[in-house]
């Protein structure tokens, strides 16, 4: 196993507003905005319209960035994509053994991504639920120190509303984006649901950073002195907190670290 060489502070630099250019005031943007406003106008309650407008903000920023890059000829340079080099890897065996890890654990929070609502009720080998097993893992780790380690669950909008979870888990919601289409007659259109409203789709795992900021969770964690977040899917029970890796991350002041294994 190797570690590929985050502190929360860099997240605050990701979503910076950018001034629009004349090129971006295009037919595509105009058509899409008009369609969004038309669907919003059919919403009965003003409080619902306000909530939907807030939901649309991350999507509009992403769409704006897509248009900006398209109009300015941005493209992915595949020649710059290369395999990970040996000097970018830190062999697990080379890391110093963790000793007093309380100081490092005090800076830690854990985030689990609930990809599907089915994962909440999916049983493990011993009959325990995935969420229960995750809570048990964090509880066992927390029992070694005199403070709690925050456990955050990132849920999707289509998760089961009836899914139960322990009270000590903080839940934040993933963004949802309206489904759009493109054809010869319309630069960009918005798909509607059977009821005439928006047809939504999940924003994807890349929305983790936006969700942490939008929910206020980032500020809350920083105010508690939390600086490191370990992120994994809910069904990845092997993604536990390794005090040795954690202490190495703190000691080297590494902002982002990824645990990888050799393909055999």
From TrEMBL:
<protein>
    <recommendedName>
        <fullName>UTP--glucose-1-phosphate uridylyltransferase</fullName>
        <ecNumber>2.7.7.9</ecNumber>
    </recommendedName>
</protein>
<keyword id="KW-0808">Transferase</keyword>
<comment type="function">
    <text>Plays a central role as a glucosyl donor in cellular metabolic pathways.</text>
</comment>
<keyword id="KW-0548">Nucleotidyltransferase</keyword>
<comment type="similarity">
    <text>Belongs to the UDPGP type 1 family.</text>
</comment>
<dbReference type="Pfam" id="PF01704">
    <property type="entry name" value="UDPGP"/>
</dbReference>
<dbReference type="InterPro" id="IPR016267">
    <property type="entry name" value="UDPGP_trans"/>
</dbReference>
<dbReference type="InterPro" id="IPR002618">
    <property type="entry name" value="UDPGP_fam"/>
</dbReference>
<dbReference type="GO" id="GO:0006011">
    <property type="term" value="P:UDP-alpha-D-glucose metabolic process"/>
</dbReference>
<dbReference type="InterPro" id="IPR029044">
    <property type="entry name" value="Nucleotide-diphossugar_trans"/>
</dbReference>
<dbReference type="GO" id="GO:0003983">
    <property type="term" value="F:UTP:glucose-1-phosphate uridylyltransferase activity"/>
</dbReference>
């Amino acid at each position: 196993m190797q570690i590929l060489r985050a502190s929360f502070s860099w997240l605050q630099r990701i979503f910076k507003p950018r001034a629009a250019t004349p090129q971006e005031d295009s037919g595509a943007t105009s058509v899409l905005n008009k369609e969004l406003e038309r669907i919003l106008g059919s919403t009965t309650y003003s409080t619902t319209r306000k909530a939907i407008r807030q939901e649309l903000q991350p999507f509009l920023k992403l769409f704006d960035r897509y248009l900006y890059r398209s109009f300015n000829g941005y493209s992915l340079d595949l020649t710059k994509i290369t395999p990970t080099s040996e000097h970018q890897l830190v062999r697990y065996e080379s890391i110093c053994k963790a000793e007093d890890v309380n100081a490092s654990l005090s800076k830690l929070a854990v985030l689990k991504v609930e990809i599907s609502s089915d994962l909440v009720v999916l049983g493990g080998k011993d009959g325990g639920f995935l969420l229960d097993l995750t809570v048990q893992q964090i509880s066992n780790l927390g029992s070694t120190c005199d403070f709690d380690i925050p456990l955050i669950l990132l849920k999707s909008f289509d998760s089961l509303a009836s899914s139960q979870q322990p009270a000590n888990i903080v839940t934040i919601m993933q963004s949802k984006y309206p489904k759009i289409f493109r054809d010869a007659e319309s630069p960009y259109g918005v798909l509607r649901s059977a009821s005439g409203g928006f047809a939504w789709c999940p924003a994807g795992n890349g929305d983790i950073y936006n969700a942490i900021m939008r929910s206020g969770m980032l500020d809350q964690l920083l105010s508690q002195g939390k600086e490191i977040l370990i992120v994994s899917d809910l069904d990845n029970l092997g993604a536990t907190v390794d005090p040795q890796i954690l202490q190495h991350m703190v000691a080297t002041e590494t902002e982002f670290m990824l645990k990888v294994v050799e393909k055999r």
